[in-house]
Design goal:
alpha/beta; about 150 residues; 3-stranded antiparallel beta sheet
Length: about 150
Amino acid sequence: MIDIYTEKRESKDWILQNDLYFNLNTSNEEMSQYEINLIQQVDEAKLTPDKYIETKYGLGTIRNLSSGCKTLLNIVKHPDKVVNVEECGPNVLKIIFTMDNIKIYMSRPSLFDIPDDVQIRFNDSDIVTGGRGYNAWWGKEYERREADDL
């Protein structure tokens, strides 16, 4: 199940600024082979043992990863937190929506492929399945927002 929250909250259990949180926290943690593979998959970067990344553009630090990659690693490393995914492109969202037992924040829908069998719970309430359920929920949400003048 993926929990999606659509209203922003200020809380220590929320990561709203992914780059900052990653640079101060996640980047200092050891990366598992799974996480190293995600870095390769998303940014086509190879993580060296001393936390540098090798890309087609040259050598950089782990802090030079894309915002989408940092967001993905924040989700994997901190599954107890609600993570803002609004800076993620379709390539990263596609990976996120194959995961289970994660919590994310998005205030608007994004277009990307969602597996048919993924279970999504919006705002601790409505449970939908797959891309059709996701799109139908957002359609109703926009009708509600329009009715409420939001």
